[in-house]
């Protein structure tokens, strides 16, 4: 028996080994094994069994061990790994590292800790003698003599400032007992998931929900691959539909994966799911980036062994080694957070769809604002569309008001942060003891240019994206095609001299609110507060219990939050996401507006939304006001079609970086010519151009965009071409397939 093994230690190559008699029965494709490489033993994953090699058998080395008795990757995951390797042009090693947690790859089973306890109860005289002769020994002995439980050795050493030699001396003398203990960890007892678990009774589904549950149920029962796109306004009961689908799978003995964009930001959703599944006796593994290695190992083992059949988690939970996968839910499928921004640069939603296909499972994508990629898959018949048209209990969607900031600026003849309308509404809420959330749009470059009088933003005539201002040479540049013009001194549209750079921080908004509502209790949530996780939870809890009147933060805090007493939501600056050099800018803005509005009026009282903008007539704003997703999608797909942007073609971003700007530019141009020669009729190139941020950490950056019909064909061709070109040593490159931000 010969196996092909992909090492996980810096060898990007399949190596072949013989398998000893003792391991033959237990090694399978997907198993983690230890193999000799050079003079060391390394961990690797078995990619194929019964491999064929043209090396004589006696020259092959032998597998030296097996890490776990179950394969780390199930057959569908192994196929998925190969697909990701090809599609995202990622090294196999990095793909496997993304899929298999470190603790599993290390072969650690449970964490082991050394513990100390007293083996002898010393008399007062013995202690006195010890104190004189060996003060460190006496310190440890006195401490242990008073302990009922064995104490962790590592902790004692540092806390009592004694050395390991001191412990050894006492062990030798028979006074101290040292033992190794396995430390139990509970994967679901982490700080994000605890505290709020409430076992809730499922509400009776309304008619629309019931129809969709039946439709999804039919796909589940068929046991064939199907994708459903659930489009439902915020608060229409989508989560309830997901829960029913998962329950159906669990009842039939299958497993389900439930993806959310970011676990840390959706504690409420996680608590709700756990409440429901755990009340029904299903251990629920919560999977996210803040888990310790030990917690990860426990959760993984529970899923791989079939002890747990449901996992809730962010992007990487799509690789959970569940048995008999029947369903993958992707909540908020439009969220850019599903895309990983380091290698392998995969998209969690796209991987979910592909994995469901391999497993003959159902993939349930849901959103109040589906991505245009998914929506166009409905149109071309690949996905099935299910729609929830109204909020649960016929609750009204909030009243949506647009403030034209150009008029505000004229009125006050100066810089305005909060419009008169927004201030009036906030004051009224404060009087009535209702709550307000103010969102600040975090996306956006301070380097885009907008006229404060007419709202005009200069766009590239070839690419329909905002141009970026370069202070150094006073120019506006397009970062897709390189088109360039001098930065205008007056507005190109209305000739006003009021053209300026944008940017608004949470702090400035907080100051503005303090001026108009001096007695209100405010809290600000920004990257600083988010870094201290307990603080973020504290704020949410204080907001819920009414200890805070106004919550200020970026749109990140808005996800999935459900506060019944919030009757006003303000968006301070809608434009920041609209005029970034990104063809998805309109889509992002529309999504932002709809999602933000969805936070208002979730309780018994109707909600109101106030959106401040310099471009009130923009499509994204107008369609969002009418909560008209279909209208927006039609209009935007039209634009995408005209410029042949995704979803009509795939986009691949190629970044070149290095210390020497001339060399990078020269090489990028040379490479572009090679691509043109080899792939000119399947790929359209734009660039090379300098990246929006030209210099990062003393490295210069150039980029090329490839537009193509099939990334699955073009990426391997690019990789093949790379092998034929001599790459300079100090030019590094990154390929990003289907990038989510430009
Ligand atoms: P979405 O995920 O679309 O935002 P949710 O599923 O969170 O919507 O539902 C919004 C609220 O309505 C939740 O508090 C949920 O418990 C409740 N809800 C959902 N479906 C029903 C129903 N059929 N009857 C009563 N309440 C429901
Ligand atoms: Zn352009």
UniProtKB/TrEMBL annotation:
GO terms for cellular component: primosome complex. Residues 219-388 form the Helicase ATP-binding domain. Residues 475-643 form the Helicase C-terminal domain. Its EC number is 5.6.2.4. Initiates the restart of stalled replication forks, which reloads the replicative helicase on sites other than the origin of replication. Recognizes and binds to abandoned replication forks and remodels them to uncover a helicase loading site. Promotes assembly of the primosome at these replication forks. Belongs to the helicase family. PriA subfamily. This is Replication restart protein PriA. It comes from Oleiharenicola lentus.
């Amino acid at each position: 028996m010969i196996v092909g093994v992909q090492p996980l230690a810096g060898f990007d190559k399949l190596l072949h080994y013989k398998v000893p008699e003792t391991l033959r029965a237990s090694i399978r494709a997907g198993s983690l094994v230890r193999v000799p490489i050079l003079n060391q033993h390394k961990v690797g994953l078995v990619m194929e069994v019964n491999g064929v090699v043209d090396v004589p058998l006696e020259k092959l080395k032998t597998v030296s061990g097996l890490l776990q008795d179950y394969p780390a990757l199930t057959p569908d995951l192994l196929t998925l790994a190969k697909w990701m390797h090809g599609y995202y042009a990622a090294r196999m090693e990095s793909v496997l590292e993304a899929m298999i947690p470190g603790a599993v790859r290390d072969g650690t089973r449970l964490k082991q800790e050394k513990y100390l306890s007293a083996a002898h109860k010393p008399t007062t005289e013995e202690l006195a003698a010890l104190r004189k002769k060996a003060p460190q020994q006496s310190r440890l002995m006195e401490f242990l003599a008073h302990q009922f439980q064995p104490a962790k050795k590592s902790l004692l050493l540092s806390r009592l400032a004694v050395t390991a030699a001191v412990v050894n001396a006492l062990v030798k003398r028979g006074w101290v007992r040292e033992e190794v203990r396995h430390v139990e960890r509970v994967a679901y007892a982490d700080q994000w998931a605890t505290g709020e678990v409430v076992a809730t009774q499922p509400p009776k589904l309304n008619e629309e929900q019931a129809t969709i549950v039946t439709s999804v149920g039919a796909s589940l029962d068929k046991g064939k691959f199907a994708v459903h796109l659930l489009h439902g306004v915020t608060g229409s009961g989508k989560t309830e539909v997901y829960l029913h689908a998962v329950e159906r799978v669990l009842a039939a003995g299958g497993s389900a994966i439930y993806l959310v964009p970011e676990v840390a930001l959706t504690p409420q959703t996680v608590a709700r799911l756990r409440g429901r599944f755990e009340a029904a006796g299903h251990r629920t593994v919560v999977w996210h980036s803040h888990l310790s290695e030990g917690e990860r190992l426990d959760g993984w083992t529970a899923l791989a062994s079939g002890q747990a059949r449901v996992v809730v988690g962010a992007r990487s939970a799509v690789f959970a080694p569940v048995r008999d996968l029947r369903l993958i839910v992707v909540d908020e499928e439009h969220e850019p957070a599903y895309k990983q921004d380091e290698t392998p640069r995969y998209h969690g939603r796209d991987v979910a769809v592909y994995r469901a296909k391999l497993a003959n499972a159902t993939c349930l994508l849901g959103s109040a604002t589906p991505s245009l990629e998914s929506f166009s898959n409905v149109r071309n018949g690949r996905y099935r569309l299910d729609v929830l048209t109204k909020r649960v209990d016929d609750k009204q969607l909030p009243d949506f008001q647009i403030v034209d900031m150009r008029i505000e600026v004229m009125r006050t003849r100066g810089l305005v942060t909060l419009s008169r309308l927004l201030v009036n509404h906030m004051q009224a809420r404060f009087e009535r003891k209702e709550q307000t959330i103010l969102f600040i749009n975090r996306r956006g470059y301070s380097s885009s240019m907008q006229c404060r009088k007419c709202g005009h933003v200069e766009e590239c005539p070839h690419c329909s994206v905002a141009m970026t201002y370069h202070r150094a040479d006073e120019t506006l540049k397009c970062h897709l095609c390189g088109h360039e013009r001098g930065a205008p001194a007056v507005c190109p549209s209305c000739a006003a001299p009021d053209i300026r750079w944008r940017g608004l921080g949470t702090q400035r908004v907080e100051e503005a609110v303090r001026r108009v509502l001096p007695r209100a209790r405010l809290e600000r949530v920004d990257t600083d507060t988010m870094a201290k996780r307990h603080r973020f939870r504290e704020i949410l809890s204080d907001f819920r219990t009414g200890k805070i009147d106004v919550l200020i933060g970026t749109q990140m805090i808005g996800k999935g939050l459900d506060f019944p007493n919030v009757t006003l939501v303000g968006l301070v600056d809608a434009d920041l996401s609209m005029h970034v050099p990104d063809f998805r800018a309109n889509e992002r803005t529309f999504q932002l507006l709809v999602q933000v509005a969805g936070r208002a009026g979730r309780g018994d009282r109707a909600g109101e939304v106030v959106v401040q903008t310099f471009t009130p007539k923009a499509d994204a704003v107008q369609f969002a006001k009418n909560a008209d997703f279909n209208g927006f999608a039609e209009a935007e797909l039209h634009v995408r079609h005209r410029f042949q942007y995704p979803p009509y073609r795939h986009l691949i971003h190629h970044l070149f970086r290095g210390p020497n700007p001339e060399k990078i530019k020269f090489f990028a141009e040379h490479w572009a010519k090679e691509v043109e020669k080899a792939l000119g009729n399947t790929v359209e190139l734009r660039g090379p151009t300098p990246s929006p941020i030209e210099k990062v950490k003393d490295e210069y950056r150039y980029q090329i965009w490839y537009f193509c019909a099939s990334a699955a064909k073009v990426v391997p061709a690019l990789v093949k071409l790379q092998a034929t070109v001599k790459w300079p040593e100090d030019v590094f490159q990154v390929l990003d397939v289907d990038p989510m931000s430009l």
